[in-house]
Model the fold of this input.
Amino acid sequence: MVMRPPLVNVMARAAEKAARGLKKDFGEVEHLQISRKGPADFVSTADLQAQKILREELSKARPDFGFLMEEKDNAPDTSGKGERWIVDPLDGTTNFLHGLPHWAISIAAEREGELIAGLIYNPISDEMFWAEKGIGAYCSNQRLRVSARGDFADCLIATGMPFKGSSKPVAPFIAELQAIMPHVAGVRRAGSAALDLAYVAAGRYDGYWESGLGPWDIAAGILLVKEAGGFVAPLIAKQDPLKSGCLIASNTAVHDKFVAALRGAKVG
Ligand code: 2AM
Ligand code: CA
Done:
């Protein structure tokens, strides 16, 4: 049985504590107070309460770490610290607010610009995906490996499509979809970038691409995919996927073909 490393234990305990409140709120979702961050970008009291718990628990365990968090709160900005947590307290908010049990807490640890640990926890399925640099990726105690499918025609590919008010333009996404959809077994849009990446690491999806994401959506997932033996590339060559928020993740077997198809997609 694998021993969870200390940093992962810190993330797991914080996530489990935050999850208790989220699960309760999910059971009473119709009573939640919801406000809009943008035209279709919702934030609820559930997100904010979960973020508060995560900040408290993670700071208790590692007082020197800074924070880069999805939701704006009143805490001082510590996002420039060399060691920091990158946190999405609730990835898949739209699913959550519609009673769909597909959402997760995502926490990554970064040291001097390098991702060193990541954890994605779906409290409803009770699946805890985690990875530490050099140690591998796991779901609970089970080692994760990306899939071995090498034939594009057999591949199940995940993506995130634009929504009302989102920063991603529609036309390039349609061009990308046209470049992929006719050649693969299926394309899925499940609504949580963190879980999409965790599922690539677990070999459930063979690949995933999306644009316009924040670092909190993808930091933990990027490490999971890499530690599960997969590849992560920027949608536009030479960019940093974490900083640009536009990425392609997949198993090794279809990676080159997948990247070439997406980068070659032309609008019009
Ligand atoms: P969020 O739930 O933390 O906001 C999927 O495309 C990604 O986009 C998700 O990780 C989700 O993160 C974000 N997103 C924000 N608003 C969305 C919306 N209205 N529909 C789908 N995804 C949304
Ligand atoms: Ca998110």
User: Anything to note?
Assistant: Helices lie at 6-27, 45-61, 93-97, 170-180, 193-201, 215-227, 241-244, 255-263.
